[in-house]
Request: fold
Amino acid sequence: MTFGPAELICQLLVGISRSMILFIVCAGLSFVLGVLRVPNIAHGSLYMIGAFATFSITKMFAGSTGFWIALIVAPLLVAVVSLIAERALFCHLYQREHLMLLLFTFAISLILGDLVKIVWGAEYKSVSAPALLKGSVSLLGASFPRYNLFLILIGPLVAIALWLFTIKTKIGKISRAAAVDREMVGVLGINVSWVFAVAFVIGCYLAGVGGALVAPTVSITLGMDHTLIIEAFLIVTIGGLGNMWGALVGSLIFGVTHSFGVLFWPQFAIVFPYIAVVIVLLLRPKGLLKSVW
Reply:
């Protein structure tokens, strides 16, 4: 089967649009890894909560404005949940071994999964794209969904915003310093505990943003966090642990290879991103870009 330039370009854009959702989630995970050194498996559960919250808020505010309200409110709800968890639980465990943190965050993910089941049930949910982003546009004679174009645009905006936050703002600079030498930051009279809390909440907020953005593109269901968190850890690993731009590159590799796998060999499309991961790790075991670990 042969494909023309229009089909190939559209499939590339589909892969990039999915990569942007992966990047937004992985940027949050990478930020937490970089500053707190916490491999947060519960990050995927917060992404799932963001998607379910988007469903409820969109349903509450019927009409074309519902999704836009949900895009603002749902990530904030995830941020509140993450702040409660950080202050009550995570802040006591930052000095523990990574294996213990993995087990602890895995337990938190199971608890959050049960809470989601209690609140929203086990049925599939769905969210429609807002009226402004419904339909498609023509690219070289092929149709491409407007919502996917929106995702391609919003991904770089999130990347730039997070980069500006870490480089230009005071709390961002303190977070970077704490990632390198938290004891020295504490000696300077800065409350490192709250710096970590802010960093954790920002990372989890991005998981909520990813959940809200993915809601119109997939069925919202229990277990959607499991696949996501596996992909997210693979992406931050091949990109470089804690490196935001590495997360972007890794997300693009993952999303685009899967997209072209669907086009050329749909029965085994899921395998292509993992083959790409293996190749990258064979060539660059420490990741494509510099790890902060």
